[in-house]
Amino acid sequence: MRAARLHRFGEPLVVEDAPEPVPGPGEVLVEVAYAGVNPLDVWVTRGTVAGGSQPLPFVPGAEAVGRVDGRWVVVRGAGVGVTRDGLYAERAAVPAEAVVDLPPGVDPAQAAAAPIAGGTAWALAHRVARVTPADRVLVLGAAGGVGSLLLQVLRNAGVRAWGQTGDPGKVAFVEAQGAERVVVAGAADLAGAVAELRPTVVVDPLGDGYTAAALQALEPYGRLVLFGVSAGPTQDLDLRALYRKAISVLTYSGTIEPAERLREATEAVLAELAAGRLRVPVEEILPLERAAEAHRRIEERRVRGKLVLEVGGA
Asked: What is the pTM of this model?
C-alpha cells in the first residue's frame, strides 16, 4: 500500500510503501479515492497539533472520499489524521463514526475537499456568529479554503459580505465566491479600507495585527470570530477597544468539536453540494506523490481555495 508518511516533525512527507491497515472493533476499511489537503495537515507535520504526540512514521490527512464495501463515503473526525493515522494512503482503517454516506450526484473530488473547510465555514456562520440578513460581515483571508466557502455560505443566507486579501491577484477569485466587494489591505490599513461596510461581524483566521485592526473596524456590539492565526499567534491589544464597544469575542476549533457537531456540519455541507448551492473552489488535483508539494504551496500561501490529492481515483 502506498502512503505519504511523516518520519520526523518539520520534514517533508515521504511517499512509500506502508503496512496494510487492519480495522479493529468499531472500525471500517476505507479505499481512499481523494484526500483533501488542509493547513491542519501542515500543522500536524510541524508537531504543533496534539503536542507532537503522534507516533512516527505518521500518515496525515483529515478528510477524504472513498469506498467502504463498495459504497461511496466521506471521512472526517474521530481523530483521523490528527491523533491517529490519516487519509494520505490508499487504504485507511477509521472509526465508523467518522464516516458518512456521499449523497448521489456529488463529485467525489469536490466532496473530499469539503468537510473541513466547508464544515468550518458552516459552523462559523450558523453556530458561532449566528449571522442574520441584518449583519454585514468582513471575511479576512477570503481566498483561503474556509474563506472562499464562507463567502458562499453567507451569500446563500442572504448576508452582505466583503472579503479581504493581501494579494491583488486574488481579487477576481474572491469576487467569484460571492463577495460584494474585495479589499486589498494589510493590517495597518484594514480598518480604513472597510469603513464603508461598518461590519457587525469580522471572521478572522489571521491573528497578529489583523485581530487588533478587526476590533477597530467593528461596529459597537459587533462580533469578532477568531479561528486561526496564520499571520501570527500573538498581538498586543488595547482592551478598551473591546469593552467600550461591547465587542463579543467568539472562537472556533474543529479539533475539539464533538463528533455529533462535526457530523452535523459535514452533512449540511454535503447537502448544499448536492443541491448545487455550494461549490468547493478546487485549484488543482495532485497525485499522492506530490503531497509534500501540496504542503509547501499551503505554507507559501500559493493556493486559491483547496488542493486535493488523487489517491485511488474514481
From this structure: 0.94
